[in-house]
Amino acid sequence: MSRRLLGVAVAAALAATVTGCGSGGSSSTDDTLEIWIRQPPDSDSAKTAQKLADAFTTSSGVKTKVVALFDDFETKLNQQAAQRQLPDIVINDTAQLGNMHSQGWLQEVDKAALAGSGDLADRAWQAAAGSDGKFYAAPFSAQAFALIVRKDWREKVGMEPPATWEDLTKLAVAFTEKDPDGNGRKDTSGFVAPAGTKRGYASWYASSLIYANGADFLKPNGPGKYVATANDPRFVEAVQYLQDQFCRTKTVNPGAVSNDTTVTHEVFEKGQGGIYLVGPYVLARFVKSVGTDKIEVLPVPKGPSGGPGTLGEGENVYLMAGSQLQDAQKKFAEFAISAEGQRIGMNKDANGAIVRLPVNRTVDMAAERQDPRWKVFQESYDFAVYAPPVPNWAPIRQTSADAINTVWADCSADVKTAMEGLNTKLTQELQSQKAS
């Protein structure tokens, strides 16, 4: 039996939660740590990941292989699991923890035994915890969402930064109606939005305003248990606010209900809209493509019925089950969360950061990044809301996206009724996950 398959058998025997998936990848060698990261191949972010891996190899002597994948990342990971060829390390979204843990892919992480774990922010550790309260990852990167706005457009229409949702609507209307790009045509929109259903984007986009209004998709109801709250009036109010942008004021870019982030980034860059509620990972890109003097970062205004709040997320380092290289896995996690690893991942002000906001509190972000706009994202993280540690967040986000997208695409849809229906579906999903 090969070392890799022997590792599979041992892991399956020792842990009931491990499904017997092997490690190392189909093309890796037994002493090479294979690292998968959800980034486009040959992108600046993939190159930063390679720099991180190379620095780890120099520091530890452990050989590494970085595999950067973006499209259908989870599908390809499932295929590797079916072939018993899971990679050793996966750097992926915090919201994927429940899904991967429920399939038995993840090793438990002993926080106390992980060198440097005490330097990490408590809020970041929340995103590494499963529904059972145990840790199944090492926090690596954090981000909070804010508004990237065309500053030149705002100044041209003579308006101040929005302090309320009403102000935000007025700014969006001005960007739509007052020819902010000065080309003599009404061909601009207020908001650009990835409002499609792929990977749950409609829910992902709406969540910042839902949180900013003091609402949430679920609320805790005992240890490891939750109750759906999509019918909360504050939740309905936030979704209604966005439906009004699509249907009443018509301030959202055409085609948004079918778009994902890849398309929406380009819509913003082409000057087709001026307000983008998004994470900091595109800031350096927009500075380069749009112009540093043309954009600003503003916090999400507090909602009329609650807040403040905004979406919080990021990436974890997942130590995959069944690996023959458990010592190397642990060493890589420790390097990734160290001050050196975090600084490499931040990539200063250049495009390609895979650490958006550092989770290591000993890292001085201001010393690494000179662009003051990062400070808005850092301050917003103080009230950012992570997805709760249900067994599997993915179907909850997808079900929510389908319902929310429907009321944006169909202006005759009643938001309150639709959110009541969503609440019923979320309750059923919680029951199926035994988290109700």
From TrEMBL:
Mention any Pfam family matching this sequence.
Answer: SBP_bac_1
Q: Which residues form the signal peptide?
A: 1-20
CDD domains the record matches: PBP2_TMBP_like
Q: Which UniProt keywords apply?
A: Lipoprotein, Signal, Transport
Q: Which InterPro entries match?
A: SBP (IPR006059)
The family note in this entry says:
Belongs to the bacterial solute-binding protein 1 family.
Name of the featured protein: Lipoprotein LipO
> What is the scientific name of the source organism?
Nonomuraea coxensis DSM 45129
